[in-house]
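User: Hi! I'm working on a homework problem where we have to compare a predicted structure to a textbook description. Could you give me the structure for the chain below?
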Amino acid sequence: MQNLPQHIVLIPDGNRRWAKKKRLASFMGHREGAKVLERVLSTSLGLGIPCLTFWGTSLDNVIKRNAKEVNFLFDIFESYFKKLAKSKEIHKNHVRVDVLGQRNKLFPDRVKKPIREDIEKTKIYNKHQLTLLMAYSGIDEMTNAIQKIAKIKNKKPEIKIDKNLIKKNLWTKDLPVVDLVIRTGGEPHWSSGMMMWDVADAQLYFTKTLLPDFSVEEFKKAVNQYSMTERRKGA
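Assistant: Happy to help. Predicted structure tokens:
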């Protein structure tokens, strides 16, 4: 496949609706949704896509949902990150793992510990990048960047505020711009300013498929659609 996207972001949506349709507890939808990431990552690596970013949980998911559901999310995260550390696929493909967001402030130690281990064990890799947005808000990220730039400007009034300075102060400073955003769940809207700076020229793929039903075939379809689209980027 020619003209592959170099950086894909997956915005997962529909776990709770999927569970409700099947008359299951909401946590069952979250559990099934987590399995999708494993399949998408494996497929992405097979296609040779360098960067994959997955929005694991928004800031509001952690601070506004009921404690029982959030606790189960923590159970899923703990299990996933422990499994990731042992993944032969991660190490075989030299996948660097990173996690962005407010995890240190909001996650329990049982989740933060395996996250730190994943980051540490893969920090030397540079062939592929897997980034997980956890307790993340794009508005939060941009606010933080502006605050940092204001402090820099206060110390160095002569410094020029340009796109390079902005990028350098984002949490995503080490990531390339996003080429393709895939959002599942059938609601074609943005959420919480997700990576607002990096998606400026991204191609968008909205699907009605709820996350637990999002298949490898549909992922490939989105990638193929991108590869066949002329990218003018506003020109």
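For your comparison, note the following. The longest helix spans residues 26-47. The radius of gyration is 18 Å. Good luck with the assignment!
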